UniProtKB/TrEMBL annotation, chain A:
Keywords: Cell membrane, Membrane, Transmembrane, Transmembrane helix, Transport. PANTHER family: ABC TRANSPORTER PERMEASE PROTEIN, INNER MEMBRANE ABC TRANSPORTER PERMEASE PROTEIN YCJO. Belongs to the binding-protein-dependent transport system permease family. GO terms for cellular component: plasma membrane. The lineage of its organism: Bacteria, Bacillati, Bacillota, Bacilli, Bacillales. One of its GO terms (biological process) is transmembrane transport. This is ABC transporter permease subunit. Residues 79-289 form the ABC transmembrane type-1 domain.
Automatic annotation (TrEMBL), chain B:
One of its GO terms (biological process) is transmembrane transport. Keywords: Cell membrane, Membrane, Transmembrane, Transmembrane helix, Transport. GO terms for cellular component: plasma membrane. It comes from the Bacteria. The chain crosses the membrane at residues 7-26, 64-88, 100-121, 133-150, 187-208, 235-256. Gene3D superfamilies: MetI-like. Pfam families: BPD_transp_1. It is a multi-pass membrane protein. This is ABC transporter permease subunit. It is found in: Cell membrane. Belongs to the binding-protein-dependent transport system permease family. Residues 65-256 form the ABC transmembrane type-1 domain.
Amino acid sequence: MKTTNQKSFKQRFSRSFRQNIFAYTLLLPSFIFLTLFTFYPTIKSIQLSFYSGPMTRLQFSGLDQYKDVFTDEIFRKVLWNNIIFMIGTVPASLFLAMYLAIWLNKRMKGSALLRTSFFYPTVIPLIAVANIWLFIYTPQYGLLDRFLDVFGGSGPNWLGDPNTVMIAMIIMIIWKDAGFFMIFYLAGLQNLPRDVYEAATIEGAKPFQMFRNITFPLLMPTTLFVLIVAITNSFKNVDHLYIMTKGGPDNASNLLLYYIYEVAFTNWDLGKAAVLTVILIVILLSVTAFNYLYLDRKIHY
Amino acid sequence: MSRYINYSIMIILGLVFFAPLLWIFITSFSPPGEVINGSNPFWVSNPTFQNYIDAWNAAPFLRYYLNTFIIVFGVLIVQLFTITLAAYAFARLDFKGKNVLFILFLLQLMIQPEILLFPNYQVMSQLGLVDTKLAVMLPYWASAFGVFLLRQTFKQVPYELDEASKMDGSKWYQTLRHVYIPAAKPTYVAFALVSVSTHWSNFMWPLIITDSVTNRPLTVGMALFAQSYETGAQWGMVTAGTMMVIFPLLIAFFIFQKQFVSSFMHSGIK
């Protein structure tokens, strides 16, 4: 009796052992690249953020570089810009996306054409979008100023003025991203239960009431998902700065990732670039953690 | 009543959204004089191909196209391999540390390679790969996004099919090839479209890691080209260059519009 038991245990053990090895082998190719280009650079940045000096003679400097960064005027400005940029782009493009999706979902004539018109900016590279909008915002000859000219007005130097450059960027990003988010809302709307709407119609609910009490709450999971994507985008996508402003004028349009690029590859300040990278990673991780730990729990209905 | 107001708003918005593309398209066919002085920005009286010819001759666009093609498909082919294996393991195998490994994979969704511009540059210089096409591709060869997408699909394949195939004496890779991969075809299409359009558009990373005509993709080439001709008189040429970058994407988009939309939709469903 005992021997058979042992045998089966042994068999089971060797089978699960082989199964483990098999699974690890399948994961290995992905894991190698994840280690080399996600885990290792992340850890390396954290380590490097505590060391200063040139690459060959690094010296431990504790939190000094963090102190330097947090007292750096430009860093504060850039971080603030990024927050403004996020507040400017995220709610507006989500709202617009939801609005467009709700009306396109009604399948009126020409809705396919409209959907194309809202969605195509998604497939255009951000760097090409920047090229197009650079011309749109050009004083006097640009499309925007020509349009204003019809009404006898004339705009400021949109990209050259610290007061208008951010709003100009925000409008461009809303144009680029709204159609992308709209697609997710269209998908979400298809999954909504029809009978609820029928019941609401019989009860005599007004369209706006239906939106507020049914559509909006039921779309919450979609909104959450899109929210995370949109917030991540507002920290990740900085290509347009390279073409349009280089972060200027006077850092008025600079964003965190572009600032990292400048610090690392123009000033070659490696320690500072490492600190900034760590800060960016922490921001993005907390956005996701907030989503999973807090928001995700609140919206189960 | 509110119905008509909303429809009007939708139509106006549709026109506003479409205007930039139309304008850039028309400008790319406008002779230099008309770009600045034309009375109607949406009209060109003497359309010309000259801008495209000038742009084509001013920068090695053919080379850039080729580089982009190599990079985009180099990324995609390896990704298809790595995500298929990993997705199969996560979907159908039980093994020690599965949850921990899954979370480690999840990390890449938050800390995307785009964020790690600076440390990844250092990794590449340690590997001696700065200014190579390989360096542009490498950070994207693992795709957590692809693994999740595919794992979800593999999980929906009925176990019976898997077992039947094994009963017939198929090896695991034969089962994968004849059962799982055909079942996941729409997911592969979705992933491929998202991957190709993302990497076609990628800019900051190749800007940093490449430094020569032989390795530069189209986006970087176009940006450098545009920067050297940004004065008003050269608008036609720069818009022609821009059109050359976005044209293949737009053509692909209009042909595969249904798949594109459903792919991006698909990509959002967790």
